[in-house]
Amino acid sequence: MGSTPYNELFLEPGVARPHYARYTEWLSDQPADRLAQKRAEADALFHRVGITFAVYGQEEGSERLIPFDIVPRVLPLEEWIRLDSGLKQRVRALNAFIHDIYHDQQILKAGVIPAEQVLCNAQYRPEMQGVDVPGGIYAHIAGIDIVRDDAGEFRVLEDNLRVPSGVSYMLENRKMMMRLFPELFSAHRVAPVDHYPDLLLENLRSVAPTGVADPTVVLLTAGAHNSAYFEHAFLAQQMGIELVEGQDLFVRDEAVFMRTTLGPRRVDVIYRRIDDDFLDPLVFRPDSMLGVPGLLTAYRAGRITIANAIGTGVADDKSIYPYVPDMIRFYLGQSPVIGNVHTWMLRREDDREYVLAHLPELVVKEVHGAGGYGMLIGPASTKAEIEAFRRQIIATPERYIAQPTLALSTCPTFAGESLVPRHIDLRPFVLSGKEVSIVPGGLTRVALRAGSLVVNSSQGGGTKDTWVLEA
Amino acid sequence: MLSRTADHLYWMSRYIERAESQARLVDAHYRMSLLPHTVETLAQSLNSTLRALRMEEAYRERHAATVPRSVFEFVSLDRDFAGSIFNCLKAARENARAVRGSLTSELWETMNSTWLEARSIAARRAGQSDIGQFVEWVKERSHLTRGVIIGTMLRDEAFHFTRIGTFLERGDSTARILTAHQNDLVPGADAGVVPDPFAWSVLLRALSAFEVYRRVYRDVITPSKVAELLILRDDMPRSLLRCSKELYSNLKSVANGQSGETERRAGEMHAMLHFARMQEITRNGLPAFLAHYLESLRDLGDRVASDFLVPPAEA
Predict the structure, then answer these.
(1) Are A283 and A330 in the same domain?
(2) Do residue A238 and residue A324 come from a single domain?
(3) What is the pLDDT of residues A174-201, one digit of tens each?
């Protein structure tokens, strides 16, 4: 605390970092009214194209835009090369870990991770024990949240291995920037991202059940009322595959079919965008209307690939997160390229003692929480809030972890007419199939409220285009 | 393609077509309301139109008397009436949104911006409004949508189901408008009784047929020619024959293992209209003919649903 956040654009006041030099020069030439007009244009376009996320419980206004900021987040090539190798390394280790715990559990036997941490985890799926999945890949699509600390170091804040979202905004933001400011793209060599849907489809086809020559891939959505529906529809369209709901699929003789106007058609790979709990009402939540009865039987018989696999949640749980660097050493014999954020595990007595004594300066998170809910940001909380959290921690310490309050790096962002520093993070999307691949960059999320560290769109976050400069 | 996708496409185009048909009807009556000495004819025409569109009951729940202004408002922008143009546009857009990935982006953007604009028009107008302008706009948006469908969609199943929705709805709409005016189309009207020029102009305008009539017949307007134009002319885009022909050919393009009987019935309807003569139709009674036609269309709609759109479980 008290440290100055790393500024992504300025080296010192008035002096841009080299990879932002040309951009700031361009920006200073832009009349304020042109920028204002471009921002209004972006808003109108996003509305017309319907790039929205659904907000529950509001009539007619129930689709909202995620605010888009026109100042790009720029990464120089050398930083990206390092991120790229660190991300691939991390996701390889995570996939090896998931495979291991559903098979021999060597990492538990070696005592690297306490067995009860894994086996008693609510996200551990005993149904997956001994099930072989194509290529041993579980997290086919991973969204790894990266932040930059005050020393300028990148760190992983969180791994998202279940149904990570946001990639459509990465693609649409780029399209929007190219439409609004084409001149910027002739002045910079920005690494392209628009081949992501091709890579994703290729990746999904590469993990089809063995023996399927020309696999049929579908995207399974919860439907038009789901908050990420735009992304589901967008990706299905870009890949040219069917966007299905649970009601469109059925299982017969351990194989999955979709109902079409020409009768049943076999499905080989399901890119699912609904949680494990809803996939198969016969096995998981019986009240789920979103899933497909019998899906797990077909899955265990190896007749269908589900991406991401069932049971990946055990690896992105916040109580497992502290062990990811150990996984990298254990499975790959390498030292981690990108480190974690230091994490205290409150089920450990020493850690708990320290954290309880320093609550006002720390961030405390629920291990199963997501989306910026269920957390305490010490420096931004009242005494009463801190005391309430203290009681919860003492009652159920195993439900919490704590981290230092990070001074997330900032990037200039428009607030009205003026540019102000706002905290940002980065979510690159890592694809694993026959190979591991990443399109350069990812989704940059920005906390639009002054001082806020919460970048989630459900909590008032916005997004920026992310550039990796090739030269 | 997915049955559910076909279902949404079918309803998307039905709702757009319905919005346009209603906009035409409002437009024709609205023009009539601007002419002097039409109060009684106008009220009569509005009443029979409300009846033919099966909107009479819903209208009476809200308004006691047939006041043109109230009818226009009711049909166009009443948010609480599921059949209003406003709600048709909303339903069209919701169906489009449910399958937006299967639409071309041009088509999705057209559907979406139509709805966004309709919503802001409805919000803007507090009392003082220009109905004429609104229905003009609805017609333009429908023309645009159709143009985008024809100009951007691959000629695959998605296209054919969209067209099936369009022509089922259009045939239904033409038949209902004819039903509203069936008393003006009786054979005796040719001789003796002076045809009501207002009724004709409403009928013809509501089907974009006013100028077409002049062009085709180069003659004064007579009931039997009007009926022939709107029922039996193959080159008239809104005639019953034309709609049946398009319906039949689009159904043939999507045929599956169980749709044989549906296709046969559509072919039968088309053949019947193709070889029909006006004298015969009027001799057997136009109202009965129209009622039979509407019933056959309803049957085809049900059969399309069970053959393609909502197949029984495990089918």
Answers:
(1) no
(2) no
(3) 999 999 999 999 999 999 999 999 999 9
- Name chain A contacts of B159, Cβ cutoff 8 Å: none
Same domain, A35 and A140: yes
Min Cα–Cα distance to chain B from A267, Å: 12
> Is A40 in the same domain as A110?
yes
The sign of the dihedral angle between the CA atoms of A24, A25, A26, A28 is positive
Q: Does A233 lie in the same domain as A255?
A: yes
Tell me: the pLDDT tens digits for B111-141? 999 999 999 888 886 554 688 899 999 999 9
Q: State the total domains in chain A.
A: 2
Pairwise pLDDT comparison (B197 vs A108), residue with the higher score: A108
Identify whether residues A64 and A110 lie together within a single domain.
Answer: yes
Q: Rounded mean pLDDT of A237-262?
A: 94
Residue B44 has a pLDDT of: 87
Which residues of chain A lie closer than 8 angstroms to B108, CB-CB? 49-50
Query: Does residue A52 lie in a domain region?
Result: yes
Q: Which conformational region is residue A321 in: left (phi greater than 0), alpha (psi within -120 to 50 degrees), or beta? A: alpha
Chain B interface includes A382 (CB < 8 A) = no
List all residues 6 or more positions away from A406 whose beta carbon is below 8 Å from its beta carbon.
A147, A149, A150, A155, A157, A341, A363, A453
Please name the residue of chain A whose CA is at the shortest distance from the CA of residue B113: A48
Shortest Cα distance, chain A CAs vs residue B165, angstroms: 15
Peptide bond into A308 cis (omega under 30): yes
Question: Is residue A377 classed exposed, middle or buried when 0-12, 13-18 and 19+ CB atoms within 10 A define those classes?
Answer: middle
Domain coverage including residue A296: 210-303
**A169 and A215 in a common domain:** no
In a domain, A441, yes or no: yes
Residues A179 and A120 both lie in one domain: yes
Per mean pLDDT, which range of A15-19, A48-52, A305-309 is the poorest?
Answer: A48-52
- Residue B159 backbone phi and psi in degrees, to 5: -65, -45
Per CB-CB distance under 8 Å, the chain B contacts of A47 are 116
**For chain B, domain boundaries:** 1-153, 159-308
Residue A28 CB partners (closer than 8 Å, separation 6+): none
Contact yes or no for B174/B239 (Cβ under 8 A): yes
Measured between beta carbons, the chain A residues lying within 8 angstroms of B97 are 50, 224
**Nearest by CB to A260, which of B1, B97, B101?**
B1
Contact assignment for A234 to B102 by CB distance below 8 Å: no
Are the beta carbons of A349 and A381 closer than 8 angstroms?
Answer: no
pLDDT at residue A1 in the model: 45
**Other Cβ atoms within 10 Å of A418 Cβ, number:** 9
Contact residues, chain B, for A259 at CB < 8 Å:
2-4, 311, 315
User: Over the stretch B13-52, which tens digit does the pLDDT of each residue have?
Assistant: 999 999 999 999 999 898 888 887 678 888 888 999 999 8
**What's the pLDDT band for B195 if we cut at 50, 70, 90?**
low
Contacts of A85 by beta carbon, 8 Å cutoff, 6+ apart: A337
- pLDDT tens digits along A71-126: 999 999 999 999 999 999 999 999 999 999 999 999 999 999 999 999 998 899 99
Select the residue from A261, A262, A273 to test the B interface by mutation, using most B Cβ atoms within 10 A. A261
Cα distances (angstroms) measured from residue A212 to each of A58, A240, A270: 45, 19, 14
pLDDT > 90? residue A425:
yes
Domain annotation covers residue A285: yes
ipTM more than 0.85? no
B251 vs A179: CA distance, rounded Å: 41
Domain end residue (candidates: A249, A278, A303): A303
CATH code, domain with A297:
3.40.50.11290
A residues 46-65 closer than 8 Å to B (CB):
47-50, 60
The answer to whether residue A375 sits within a structural domain is no
